[in-house]
Amino acid sequence: MNQLDILRRDLAALEHGHLLRHRRNNALPCAPHARIDGRDMLAFCSNDYLGLAASPVLADALADGARRWGSGSGASHLVSGHYAVQEALEGRLAQFVGCERALYLSAGYMANSGIIPALVGRGDAVFADRLNHASLVDGMLLSRAEMNRYPHLDVDALARMLSGSGAKRKLIATDSVFSMDGDVAPLADLLALAEDHDAWLMVDDAHGFGVLGPQGRGAVAEAGLDSWRLLRVGTLGKAAGVSGAFVGGEADVIEWLMQKMRTYVFTTGTPPALAQALLASIDLIEHGDARRRHLDGLIARFSSQLELERWRLMPSRTPIQPVLVGDNEAVLKLAAALWNEGLWVPAIRPPTVPSGSARLRVSLTAAHTEDDVDLLAATLNRLERGT
Fold first, then answer.
1. Looking at residue 375, which CATH number applies to its domain?
2. Final residue of a domain: which of 248, 269, 286?
3. Are residues 96 and 140 in the same domain?
4. What is the mean pLDDT of the segment spanning 260-281?
5. Pair 204, 112: CB distance under 8 Å
6. pLDDT for 17 beyond 90
7. Can you list the pairs that 67-70 forms with residues at least 24 positions away whose Cβ atoms lie under 8 Å?
8. Whether the bond into 351 is cis, omega within 30 of 0
9. Active-site annotation holder among 73, 179, 281, 357
10. Residue 262 sits in the same domain as residue 194
């Protein structure tokens, strides 16, 4: 059997295990209403939590940015691909989240997979929540540091691991809001452990930035935390509605990352036009309390409307509202039944989630209406009853 035959065999095994993924082609901008293959669908898939991705304000800012700055940067940030508008964005982000300095990157994956190897290496140790995003896991692997994964949200287990470690340098890495569960890490407890054990604390606030905390400043701000050992990572393609990511922290720490992060140093800089759109986005987030109140109301409404017995709504106070089904085939059938009703809700299976915990990942946004949420809840109730 040659390499192509092996690959084809493995693809067939994915399909047999109900683990093959498929792309949908949407003919409309990012919003609750999508059009797939000519069919209108009500979507609960997007991480566009504040409904900004299709905002005319951001579209105008992006167009103005393209006219002012062109369509590309031309080089890496450290050669000639860094522009005044990106410098302004980094200053605005630092001010917004409450840290000394911020560094703007192309993607959250590049931030997480680059920060960890820049801070720790062989002979050091990383301590990570077992349900962290894959980008944090890959950052640990790239660092070649010792990997220690503690049970989800188990602060006591983490404390024991830290106490038993003789590593010279230590780093605790966690999601703030866990992307497939919707629950929130105990950030204050994690920072206390970092202080006790002289460790870095890296918080991936991809799903908290824009949604949690005062003016949407994120989960770290919600917890009221501040420390030189704290690194805040935020994604700018979710609630911010555009693209990219940033890491914020103490000025010298950010300078070190700028010098040493391979995912920053060795890649072409982001188009400066995006930074102009993001400056407008931060303003919308800062003044977006009405959007967040509406979103919070939808979250509470969805939970109150569901009447499930076989399936289970997992506890979450965030826009991520997972409905646990368990079996891979069963969750695919449920997602297909919803699709047939005109409701687009993604089925999440291993390896994204642990084996036996396949689920629907319902994602609510401020662009949804109460009627949208009521329809989804009523349909789920009816499908579970088999009527």
1. 3.90.1150.10
2. 286
3. yes
4. 97
5. yes
6. no
7. 68/273, 68/276, 69/271, 69/272, 69/273, 69/276, 70/271, 70/272, 70/273
8. yes
9. 179
10. yes
Pick from 260, 225, 235, 273: which is nearest to 59 by CA? 273
Angle at 364 between CA 273 and CA 174, to 5 degrees: 75
pLDDT of residue 211 exceeding 70: yes
Decide if 34 contacts 344 (C-beta within 8 A).
yes
207 is catalytic: yes
Is 168 within the bounds of a domain?
yes
Q: Which domain holds residue 127?
A: 56-286
User: Is position 281 annotated as part of the catalytic site?
Assistant: no
Give the pLDDT band (50/70/90) at residue 21.
confident
Per residue in 163-197, is it b (16+ CB within 10 Å) or e — as a string? eebebeebbbbbbbbbbbbbbbbbbeebbebbeeb
Please, what is the average pLDDT of the chain? 96
- 3-class SS of residue 332: helix
Catalytic residue among 77, 82, 170, 207: 207
- Report how far apart, in Å, the C-alpha atoms of 128 and of each of 33, 147, 150, 320 are: 37, 8, 6, 21
Identify whether 6 is part of a domain.
Answer: no
**Could you tell me how many helices (H) and strands (E) the chain has, helices first?**
14, 14
Which positions ≥6 away from 81 have C-beta within 8 Å?
A: 73, 74, 75, 268, 269
80 counts as catalytic: no
Question: What is the reported pLDDT for 31?
Answer: 96
**Beta carbons within 8 Å of 304's beta carbon, 6+ residues apart:** none
* Residue 387 clears pLDDT 60, i.e. is over it: no
Active-site pick, 238, 281, 316, 368: 238
- 361 in helix, strand or coil? strand
Question: What CATH number is given to the structural domain containing 128?
Answer: 3.40.640.10
Number of domains in the chain: 2
- Is the pTM value of this prediction over 0.90? yes
Which positions ≥6 away from 49 have C-beta within 8 Å? 207, 210, 211, 238, 239, 295, 319, 363, 364, 365, 366
Residues 6+ apart with CB under 8 A from 189: 155
